Amino acid sequence: MTAQIIYAFVTVLLGVGGCFGYFYGSNWLLDRTFPANANNDASAVRNLRIQGNIRPWLFLGPALLLLSVYLIFPVIQTFWLSFHDRAGDQFVGLANYKWAFSDDQFRLSIFNNILWLAVVPALCTLMGLIIAVLTDRLWWGNLAKSLIFMPLAISFVGASVIWKFVYDYRGEGQQQIGILNAIVTYFGGDPQVWIALPFWNNFFLMVILVWIQTGFATVILAAALRGIPEDTLEAATIDGAGPFKIFFRIMVPQIYGTILVVWTTITVLVLKIFDIVLTMTNSQWNTSVLANLMFDWMFRGGGDFGRGAAIAIVIMVAVLPIMIWNIRQANAEQKGH
Amino acid sequence: MANIKLTNVNKSYGLVSIIKDVSLDIKSGEFIVFVGPSGCGKSTLLRSISGLDQVTSGTLEIDNAVVNDVPPSKRGIAMVFQSYALYPHMSVFENIGFALENQGLPRAEIKRKVEAVGEMLQLTSYLARLPKALSGGQRQRVAIGRAIVRGAKVFLFDEPLSNLDAALRVQMRMEIAKLKRDLPNTTMIYVTHDQVEAMTMADRIVVLQAGKVMQVGTPMELYENPNSVFVAGFIGSPKMNFITGKPADKLKAKTIGVRPEHFEFSKTATDISGTLDYTEILGSDSFLYVSTPTGMLTVREPGRTQYKTGQKLNLKPIAEHVHRFGENDTRII
Amino acid sequence: MFKSFSLEPSRIALNLAVLFIVALWTFPTAGLLLSSLRDKNDIAASGWWTALASADVSKKGRLKGMADQVQKDGKYTVSGNLLEGAEAVSGKISAFGTKVQNPTANAAGATATLENGQTLQVNADGSYLFTAPAALTEDSAGRVFYVASQPPRFTSENYQTVLFSEGIGRSFINSLTVTIPATIIPILIAAFAAYALAWMKLPFRGLIIAIIVGLLVVPLQMSLIPLLKLYNAAGTFMGVPSKTYLGVWLAHTGFGLPFAIYLLRSYIAGLPKDLIESAQIDGANDFKIFRRVVLPLCFPALASFAIFQFLWVWNDLLVAIVFLGSGPDQLVLTGKLNALLGSRGGNWEILTASAFVTIIVPLTVFFSLQRYFVRGLLAGSVKGG
Asked: What is the average pLDDT score of chain A?
């Protein structure tokens, strides 16, 4: 164990040190090669200009290199693969896309994805808004928000252990150790295998993501609520508006932009949802979503890169407009203030 | 010792032209104020001189050397920003010494210079503090200290007093005037939209409008001989009255300008008669707003006025103080 | 915010409502924590919510037999105690019976009449008296089923098991080895890039920013195959293993960069322009401005991204599976847990304890630094964060 800790420590030191070394070293070299310390000397001015042309690329270089290798190259490769057959040798035109839209599993995945899109962002935002409003003036509001925020720190694998435990099923007559079945049987119902219930199991998986993401929505919306000028609320009270009227007519319109940002952020996340389905059901019992379908075609039995790639492109194209809108919105907000 | 010379300087962002063909000759050790309404390009002109913005065309010389392509740090200038731009995480000492540190000066010399400046600006006991622990005036002095410590030949001030309250502004105005006296060889350029600052501090004022230089001159030259309706209206408070129609025709002008203090009251009817709409009594002066056929006119009367609202007044401009402007709003000599 | 909230009844209702929601949100995790501290038989036998109360547990015991019988008044008796050890001190029997179908046939202290004239009396403290008209010929006089109330029991045994014999401890160190550099390296690289994109003059700046933001949409899973091929090719070419810590650090860095640059750029671009220009006039070059002025001032944004990235890397399963080997010196915690989910799917004592070990670090990081975490979230989506 000690040997491993020392090994780990040295590895960490080397990795981090190398990164620092690059930035210090390259900039030192630049200052050394084109010295600009002499005052008002023509060559110093020239060197300063050369430095100014080179230095941005020293700063950006590692980022651009890593982005190219880890994201841009795979995107291009995937795009190319999506027009080729299973091994990537034969050009097949749009065949993979045609296959996809006529495949039952793909349709099911799209349907499930749409189901997730319709439910999760709306539920997270709504819950977030309700909790943000309720905790706003509570002395232990911050503690409450922290506890609701906490699941965000838990891994999907960890979360799935937690929720498998919640959904655990024991045969009828046995004592249920999953709390959901325990509650159901307490009220006289029959225990269910929740994650295998066709159609409804999707919702039991969604609950997990709502559990994880509501804290995110809460924190951001709570900050937005704080930003509402107090006078507008006081003015509304003087104008005789009740609490619900104040909420819907005064508060919500003022944080509308933030609500949309939260909504779209979660939407993008939902479109890429993968881990929960993988660890909870492994796409069984009709719970497959696009990312898992792609994963299966790429890594599992299917082994058809072309089809997997086509699905990946479909996901990207679906996310893109929302993302563009989101960024536009954020930029507009920034410019406005 | 550094003179500054601008020759046909233009500056544009894309298609939008901000500075239009500006030529200026600033003598060494002069205190120049750029003044004009917001958006007139005065700050851009200052930033072009500093090197933070590049001029699009024309030449810019500091100390007889063309500096168009010289980066800001090599132009021998120092700048005091409107927001002071103090580094919030550095102490006053580090703030003042940062430029020296960048020049690679030895530690002892930095210490000596910073302490000397601190003494000059009465900041000695604040050197270890962070900017947030200082008052507005002290922050302003640190910003000035940063400029002084480098021994720059040119100081550039970008609306440095606009963040201060009225009382502090008067005090800092005096401190900058004192600084100018203490550093007679340093050329200073000061940008403001406040004509009072311009009038009280400048050796010469440059009035800018829409990227063009309207007039350059000493404060009194501009006050007494404004060369255009714009300059006449911009310099002086309350604003000069502009009268068109019959009184102007009589003097063979399109418009005549009369400052509020340059009216007399007449017992008999004059060309400019009206009713007193409203008075403002300031104690030392009274401002009378008189509604006439040519528009609302402002009249300044020393002390407290005896006229009542609603009363009919006959106004007569003092002949030698009447400014005449022609068709294109320029002065008729 | 609402005036009516200050009224007493609605104030109470509000508190109760929030309490209910918080309970709903913490219940699943609380269940995990409590279960991981329970005896492994208890986990499977009863719900974790019963763990804190004394539980009625159905148990069975065996009466002593012929070896211990005593003859008295023409009858043969056997006596003893059903509860042993710690149970004997705190346990309490409420009912008993001799048939598995009906363990609560007789109340404690009552005497049950059995077949062949035999009787059995079991008291609350566990002591029993068995009488029979004829001598016993077997080792045991029979089985007894009883319901005993059991006080809460907690144990750290599960943790000892997972930390030392299940290899979770090893994986813990592997996770740290992956996470620390995979957090620091992207911060450094992204901060430099963000500064360049916010304040330096360079061609194609707008295009580069647009591309980086566009890369936010790339689903991670699609990069895996092309990268795996690339890693294998590079590994063969340079004669090194293709699955290395360096490889996984760089992968996490690459995947984390778009968000990091996006977040840090918007923060750094929001720094006062005067400050940067003042430093330029003061003769500092961009490297110095970055180090002395920008870096100290964007600490909140750096901290929040660090927490993000730390949580993301620590919680990641996929990247680690693909780019890092699955040997004991490379398997990370989430991978280990996932493997346990497959191989020990029914062993809740292993799963709950392992899961809690994997979430303890992110939870600690989160609760100690959540101030920055929240601030960083806000920087991206609400003005002025």
From this structure: 80
Cα Dmax for chain C: 114
Confidence of residue B219 (pLDDT cuts 50, 70, 90): very high
Average pLDDT, chain B: 88
- Provide the pLDDT confidence category of residue A78 given band limits of 50, 70 and 90: confident
pLDDT at residue C381 in the model: 42
Q: Measured between CB atoms, which of B72, B82, B103 is closest to C280?
A: B72
**Residue pairs spanning B and C at CB distance below 8 A:** 55
Amino acid at C378: L
- Say if residue C125's pLDDT is above 80: no
**What is the token pair recorded at A49?**
């200009």
CA B163 to chain centre: 15
Burial of C343 (0-12, 13-18, 19+ CB in 10 A): exposed
More confident residue, C349 or B51: B51
Q: Å from A198 to nearest chain C CA?
A: 22
Q: How far apart are CA C355 and CA C43, in angstroms?
A: 15
Rounded to two decimals, what is the model's pTM? 0.79
Other Cβ atoms closer than 10 A to C288? 18
* Tokens matching residue C314: 């620590």
Picking from A27, A67, A258, A296 by the largest number of C CB atoms within 10 A of its own CB, the best residue to mutate is A67
Can you tell me the distance from the alpha carbon of A210 to that of A120, in angstroms, rounded to the nearest whole number? 6
What percent of chain A has pLDDT above 90?
Answer: 4
Answer yes or no: are the C-beta atoms of C284 and B102 closer than 8 Å.
Answer: yes
Peptide bond into B238 cis (omega under 30): yes
Interior/surface letters B209-242, b for 16+ CB within 10 angstroms, e for the rest:
bebebbbbbebeebbeebbbbbbbebbbeeebbb
Instruction: Give me C77's structure tokens.
Output: 């008796």
Distances (CA, A) of C174 to A9, A11, C60: 11, 11, 45
Calculate the alpha carbon distances from C105 to A175, C112, C130 in Å.
20, 9, 16
> Quick one: tokens of C222?
């699609």
Query: Does C274 lie at the interface with B, CB-CB under 8 angstroms?
Result: yes
Which residues in chain B are contacts of A39 at CB distance < 8 A? 74, 103
pLDDT at A334: 52
**Reported confidence tier of residue A90, pLDDT bands at 50, 70, 90:** confident
Across the interface, whether the CB atoms of C370 and A149 are under 8 A apart is answered yes
Q: Any CB–CB contact under 8 A between C343 and chain A?
A: no
Question: CB distance B103–A37 less than 8 Å?
Answer: yes
Q: Would you say residue A325 has pLDDT above 80? A: no
The answer to whether C28 and A162 have CB atoms below 8 angstroms apart is yes
pLDDT of residue C383: 34
What does the block give as tokens for C265? 């750029």
Of A168-182, A301-315, B246-260, highest mean pLDDT: B246-260
Helices A104-135 and A200-226, interaxial angle, to 10°? 40
Give the number of other Cβ atoms within 10 Å of residue C277's Cβ. Answer: 22
- The answer to whether the CB atoms of C366 and A309 lie below 8 A apart is no
Residues of B in contact with C280 (CB under 8 A): 52, 71-73
CA atoms of B173 and A131, how far apart (whole Å): 53
Contacts 24+ apart (CB under 8 A), B147-151: B147/B78, B147/B79, B147/B80, B148/B78, B148/B117, B148/B120, B148/B121, B148/B179, B148/B183, B149/B96, B149/B97, B149/B99, B149/B100, B149/B113, B149/B114, B149/B117, B150/B78, B150/B99, B150/B100, B150/C282
A169-184: average pLDDT: 73
Residue C380's pLDDT is what? 46
Neighbours of chain C (3+ CB pairs under 8 A): A, B
If you average pLDDT over residues C55-64, what whole number do you get?
Answer: 72
Q: What is the C-alpha end-to-end distance of chain A, expressed in Å?
A: 54
Q: Say if CB A157 and CB C334 are below 8 A apart.
A: yes
Place of tokens 């709502």: A210
